[in-house]
Design brief:
heterodimer; A: 472 residues; alpha+beta; five-stranded mixed β-sheet; 15 helices; B: 314 residues; mainly alpha
Chain lengths: 472, 314
C-alpha cells in the first residue's frame, strides 16, 4: 500500500498552508491542556446525550462516538472544487432515479445492464411510473469522500437512502466553539449552522400540490431504540417539526394525518429516517410495526412527499456505484469532477477471476452492505478469513464488489502517545430542493482511531472530528 | 402537539414525582423506626410504607418479611418493582428521550444526569444508612431540579400544562394514599390521642409530604390530628394538599381548554372534584368517615387520569 497523504504535512513533510495556524497553535499548547479539553468534550457529549447504539452488543445500548478535538482543515479552494463535484454527482443521481422509474433511457442505451436493476432487491417496482414532486428523489444525500493526494477527491460511496451523521457535524462545531474560542479567533471558519434552515426550506419546497401554502413537515423515526435516534430528535428540534413514529400517523382517504392532542392534523412532507421496507406494512414487510398502513397509497395519490423518495436504494447500490462516471456523462454530458474508486464487479466473470486471485490485496464489500459490516479488508485479514470469504464470494459473486485498498489521507489526531496521523474520510451532506442544490461548507469527518486502520465507521471503533472549511 | 408527546410529558412528570414521594416515604419511615420501640407501638412501619406506595401485594410475592433491608431494596432499587425509584428514573429517562424535542435542555440535563448518576454511583444500591440518606437526598434534589427547570424554562403552552397535569395528579394520589393508610391515627376519637406514639406518627405523615414546618406556620399550634387532616386535604396553600393539587389541575385543564378552543369531560370532572373539596369541612368529613372520603377521592383521581388519557393522550 502506498504511503498516505497527510493533510497537514503532505507527502514530504512540508506544512500545507491551510494548517499553518493550527500547527503554530499546537506548538504553543501544552499536551495536558489538550487532554483536559478532550475530557471536557467527552463530558459534554455525554451530558447532552449524543449517543448511538451498536446493534448486537448487549451491554452497550448507548455509546459515545469518540470525538477528536484536532480539527480537520480544508482550504476554500479545495472546497469549491469538491462542492462543484458533489452538486454534479447528486444532480445525476436524481436524473438517474427519475429515468429508472420512468423511460429507462439509460438501459436502452446499454450503459447499465438491465438485470443489475431489475434483479436488484432495492429496486422498487411500486415506483414505476410514479411521479414525485419536482422530480427530486434524493433530497438529502451523504456522499463519502476520501482523498489520496493534494489534488484528488474520490467518492467512496453514495448514500442516497437515509444518510446519518449530520448531527455530529453540527454538534462537533458547537463543542469546538465552546472549547477552543481562541483557535476559532485565529481562523476564518465557514459556519455550518445554517444546515437545519436549508434542510427545512428544501423539504417545504417539495410539498405536494395538495398541501396548503404552509406545508406541515414531520420527521419520522423508527423510535428510541434506533441507533441514530439522537440525531432524529436533534434534527426535529432544530427544524421545529414534530418527531413522529409510525403509530403517530394514520392514513385516511389517501391523506396522511398525525394524532395530536387537538385531533388529527394533516402532514404534507415526511423526512423519513425509516427504511423503505418498514414504511408501510400493506406494501412492504407485513410483520413490521414501525410503519403506517396505507402510507404508500397516499404516496401514490400524490398527497404526501417522502424524503428521500422510496426506491432510492438503487442509486447507492455498490454495483450501480461502479457505473457512476458513465451515469454522470450520460445525463449531464459532462466529465465527472469527482472520481470513483476503481471497482471490480464480481458479477462479471473476468472481474471475479481477478478478485479471487488478488483477495489479499483488495477490499471486498457487500453490494447492499453499509456501516462497515460484512466487508473484507484483504491486507489486514488472516488467511483463514480470506479463505472463508473466498467461499462466500464464489457462492454469490453478484453480491460483492472489490476495490483496491486505498491509502486514505491522514490528519493529526490525539492518541495515547501524543499527536499522530490517523486515516480520515469526509461525508458532506447535499440538499436538493425544488430549485437548487445546497451544501453546507464542511461535513462529517470520520477518523479511524486505531493506528494504521482504514475503517472509519462508528460501529467499528471510528471517531469524528470537526471539519473546517477556511473562508478565504 | 402529538398525543404521544403529551402522553410522554405527562408520564415523565408522574415518574419524577413518584420517585420523590418514595424517597420521602423511606426517609420518614427510617426516622420513625429509629425510635425506641415504646414510641412506635406494634405496627410494622415498613408494612405501612409498602401500603402507601401501593406495592404491598407484589412485595410479598418476592419477600416474606417486611423489614428495613427488604423494603428499602424493593422500594428504591428493585428492578422487579415497576415503580421502584430506580425504575421511575429509568422510565423518566426513556420518556425524556422520546420527547426530547419538547423538553428544554435544562430538563433533559436533569433527567439525563440523574440517570447517569443512578448507574455510575448507585448501580449496586446502598450499603449503609449514610449512603441511603445520600441516595434519598439525590432523588429529592433531582425532582426539585426537574420541577424547577420545568417551571423556569418551559414555554407556557400545552407541553407545560400536560407535564403539570401529570405532576399534580400523581401528587394528589400520593398524599391521598398516605392518608388512606394512616387515617386511623388521625381520628379524634382514637384512644391514645396526644400520646407519644401518635405524635411520632403524625410528624412522620407530615414529613413524607414535606409539611412539618408548614403545619406550624399555618396553625401556630401543637400537632392536632384533625388539623393535620385539614392541612393535607383542604388547605390549598399547602402544595401537596388535595385541594391545592385540584386547584392546579383545574387551572391547567382550563388553560388547555382555552388554547384548544374547547372543553371536555376532563375539565368537568376536575371541577367537580375541586368543588367538593372546596365545600367540605373537616367536621363533616370526620362525621361521614375519613376513610370513605379518601377512598372516594382516590377513585375520582384515578378516573380523572383515565379521562385525560382518553381526551388527549391517545
Amino acid at each position: 500500500m502506498a504511503v498516505a497523504f497527510d493533510e497537514m504535512n503532505g507527502l514530504g513533510g512540508d506544512l500545507r498552508p491551510a494548517y499553518q495556524e493550527l500547527s503554530r497553535w499546537l506548538k504553543e499548547t501544552p499536551p495536558d491542556a489538550l487532554e483536559y479539553r478532550r475530557q471536557e468534550a467527552e463530558l459534554l457529549f455525554r451530558r447532552i446525550g449524543i449517543t448511538f447504539a451498536v446493534y448486537g452488543e448487549a451491554d452497550a445500548q448507548e455509546r459515545l462516538i469518540p470525538f477528536d478535538v484536532i480539527p480537520r482543515i480544508m482550504s476554500g479552494k479545495e472546497w469549491t472544487l469538491l462542492e462543484k463535484g458533489l452538486k454534479q454527482r447528486v444532480k445525476a443521481l436524481n436524473m438517474f432515479l427519475r429515468d429508472i422509474y420512468h423511460g429507462r433511457d439509460i438501459l436502452r442505451a446499454n450503459i447499465i445492464p438491465d438485470d443489475l436493476i431489475f434483479q436488484n432487491p432495492v429496486f422498487r417496482p411500486e415506483m414505476n411510473g410514479q411521479d414525485v414532486p419536482h422530480d427530486v428523489y434524493v433530497h438529502i444525500a451523504g456522499i463519502d469522500i476520501i482523498r489520496v493526494d493534494a489534488d484528488n477527491f474520490i467518492v467512496l460511496e453514495d448514500n442516497a437512502r437515509t444518510p446519518s451523521g449530520v448531527s455530529y457535524m453540527l454538534e462537533n462545531r458547537e463543542i469546538m466553539m465552546r472549547l477552543f474560542p481562541d483557535l476559532f479567533a485565529r481562523h476564518r471558519v465557514a459556519p455550518v449552522e445554517k444546515y437545519p434552515d436549508e434542510l427545512l426550506s428544501a423539504l417545504r419546497s417539495v410539498a405536494p400540490l395538495s398541501a396548503s401554502a404552509e406545508p406541515t413537515v414531520a420527521l419520522m423515526t423508527p423510535g428510541v431504540y434506533n441507533s441514530a435516534y439522537y440525531e432524529h430528535s436533534f434534527l426535529a428540534d432544530k427544524l421545529g417539526i414534530e418527531l413522529v413514529e409510525g403509530r403517530d400517523l394514520i392514513v385516511k382517504n389517501d391523506e396522511v394525518f398525525m394524532r395530536t392532542t387537538e385531533g388529527l392534523k394533516r402532514v404534507d412532507v415526511i423526512y423519513r429516517r425509516v427504511d423503505d421496507d418498514f414504511l408501510d406494512p400493506l406494501t412492504f414487510r407485513p410483520d413490521s410495526a414501525l410503519g403506517v398502513p396505507g402510507l404508500m397509497s397516499a404516496y401514490a395519490a400524490g398527497n404526501i412527499t417522502l424524503a428521500n423518495a422510496v426506491g432510492t436504494g438503487i442509486a447507492d447500490d455498490k454495483a450501480v456505484y461502479s457505473y457512476m462516471p458513465d451515469i454522470v456523462k450520460f445525463y449531464l454530458s459532462e466529465e465527472p469532477i469527482l472520481k470513483n474508486v476503481p471497482t471490480w464487479r464480481c458479477r462479471e466473470p473476468k472481474d471475479l477471476a481477478y478478485v479471487l486471485d488478488n483477495l489479499a490485496d483488495l477490499v471486498v464489500k457487500e453490494v447492499h452492505g453499509s456501516g462497515g459490516y460484512g466487508m473484507l479488508i484483504g491486507p489486514a485479514a488472516t488467511k483463514a478469513t480470506i479463505e472463508a470469504f473466498r467461499d462466500k464470494l464464489k457462492r454469490e459473486p453478484e453480491g460483492f464488489i472489490a476495490q483496491p485498498t486505498l491509502a486514505l489521507s491522514t490528519c493529526p489526531t490525539c492518541t495515547a502517545s501524543g499527536l499522530a496521523p490517523r486515516h480520515v474520510d469526509l461525508r458532506p451532506f447535499v440538499l436538493t430542493g425544488r430549485d437548487h442544490v445546497t451544501i453546507v461548507p464542511g461535513g462529517l469527518t470520520r477518523v479511524a482511531l486505531k493506528e494504521g486502520s482504514l475503517v472509519v465507521n462508528s460501529s467499528q471503533g471510528g471517531g469524528t472530528k470537526d471539519t473546517w472549511i477556511l473562508d478565504e | 402537539m402529538l398525543s404521544r408527546t403529551a402522553e410522554n410529558l405527562y408520564w415523565l412528570a408522574r415518574y419524577v414525582e413518584r420517585a420523590e414521594y418514595l424517597a420521602r416515604t423511606i426517609d420518614a419511615t427510617l426516622r420513625v423506626t429509629a425510635l425506641p420501640a415504646a414510641y412506635i407501638g406494634k405496627t410494622n412501619e415498613w408494612d405501612s410504607a409498602l401500603l402507601t406506595a401501593g406495592v404491598s401485594a407484589s412485595f410479598y410475592e418476592a419477600y416474606s418479611e417486611a423489614n428495613e433491608q427488604n423494603v428499602v431494596e424493593y422500594l428504591a432499587f428493585s428492578p422487579s418493582n415497576p415503580s421502584s425509584i430506580k425504575n421511575c428514573i429509568e422510565a423518566a429517562r426513556l420518556n425524556s428521550r422520546s420527547v426530547r424535542t419538547a423538553l428544554t435542555s435544562e430538563m433533559w440535563d436533569t433527567i439525563n444526569s440523574a440517570w447517569i448518576e443512578l448507574q455510575e454511583v448507585w448501580g449496586k444500591g446502598t450499603s449503609s444508612r449514610e449512603e441511603l440518606a445520600k441516595f434519598l437526598r439525590f432523588v429529592q434534589e433531582t425532582s426539585l431540579r426537574f420541577d424547577g427547570s420545568a417551571y423556569r424554562t418551559m414555554l407556557r403552552n400545552d407541553a407545560y400544562w400536560f407535564s403539570r397535569l401529570g405532576l399534580h395528579l400523581e401528587r394528589a394520589d400520593n398524599t391521598a394514599r398516605i392518608l388512606d393508610v394512616k387515617y386511623h391515627v388521625l381520628l379524634p376519637e382514637e384512644e391514645h390521642v396526644g400520646g407519644p406514639l401518635d405524635y411520632y406518627q403524625w410528624t412522620s405523615i407530615l414529613r413524607s409530604v414535606s409539611a412539618l414546618t408548614a403545619y406550624h406556620w399555618v396553625y401556630r399550634e401543637t400537632l392536632k390530628p384533625w388539623l393535620i387532616a385539614d392541612l393535607l386535604i383542604l388547605n390549598d396553600t399547602l402544595p401537596r394538599s388535595l385541594a391545592s393539587c385540584y386547584s392546579n389541575l383545574v387551572r391547567n385543564l382550563d388553560q388547555i381548554g382555552v388554547a384548544y378552543g374547547r372543553q371536555g369531560a376532563a375539565q368537568r370532572h376536575a371541577r367537580g372534584v375541586r368543588n367538593r373539596l372546596e365545600h367540605s369541612h373537616m367536621d363533616d368529613i370526620f362525621q361521614h368517615g375519613v376513610h370513605e372520603f379518601i377512598q372516594e377521592f382516590i377513585a375520582d383521581n384515578a378516573r380523572l387520569g383515565e379521562i385525560i388519557t382518553k381526551q388527549y393522550l391517545i
